[in-house]
């Protein structure tokens, strides 16, 4: 759902009614709606951060974690324009570097990822490798060059010694994936974790060169975080054993 210009997914609000006090005054109600933690995270982190949101809220019943899950470059622009981010997790180090002045302390890497080719079930266009994307016979979708997955696609193309002429360049990797899921594209360059998350809806064609263009994901607390200690707790959850386990199960590597 949307709140203002930012895409958010709401957690659960917890309200405690003090019955004794209510009886004393003859009314009952909630004095506070609790605390909010705004986590800005790359779209490719949708599934693992959704799980970590639940873990964090279970540990902090008075906290509503709101996830803003879009392309890292879009998130960076929102942060620069004053969006109320408490934590930022980017899909590459450049997007984080672009907002370094808005972060508190050095960002810490917490995951790695690499590109792959997603195709519809059955691979109707018979995509066998990266060269098949450059031939012009298939409808190919990629991320915009400014987005981490788009920058990685360009790097992989250079490593493969070819270039692409995509049918469209999307705002984030989930938009690319959706084009393949809905069969609007014969192939899309997405992260391997996205193929895993969409199991049964797409198939994977691996790119050997992608291992040389791996993305490192950094996380940092915003210098404008409303509650820096709470934001640091979420960052530490991502960096800790629970975060590594959840990210590993989603297919992310360790930095």
What is the spatial order of strands in the main beta sheet? 4-3-5-12-6
Overall, the morphology is elongated
How much of the sequence is in beta strands? 15-25%
Radius of gyration: 20 Å
Alpha-carbon distance between the two ends: 32 Å
Kindly report the average pLDDT value.
88
What structural category do the secondary elements indicate?
Answer: alpha/beta
The count of DSSP E runs of length 2 or more, i.e. the number of strands, is 12
**Level of helix content?**
25-40%
Verbal overview:
- Helix 2 runs antiparallel to helix 10.
- This protein has helices spanning 19-25, 46-59, 72-80, 93-97, 131-134, 148-159, 173-181, 192-197, 228-239, 241-249; strands at residues 2-3, 6-7, 35-42, 63-70, 87-89, 103-113, 115-119, 140-143, 168-170, 187-191, 203-205, 215-222.
- Strand 8 (140-143), helix 6 (148-159) and strand 9 form a beta-alpha-beta unit.
- The protein contains 10 helices and 12 strands.
- It is elongated.
- The longest helix is centred in the first third of the chain and has 14 residues, at 46-59.
Secondary structure blueprint with pairings:
Blueprint: E1 2-3, E2 6-7, H1 19-25, E3 35-42, H2 46-59, E4 63-70, H3 72-80, E5 87-89, H4 93-97, E6 103-113, E7 115-119, H5 131-134, E8 140-143, H6 148-159, E9 168-170, H7 173-181, E10 187-191, H8 192-197, E11 203-205, E12 215-222, H9 228-239, H10 241-249
Parallel strand pairs: 3-4, 3-5, 8-9, 8-10
Antiparallel strand pairs: 1-2, 5-12, 6-12, 7-10, 7-11
Helix pairs in contact: 2-10, 9-10
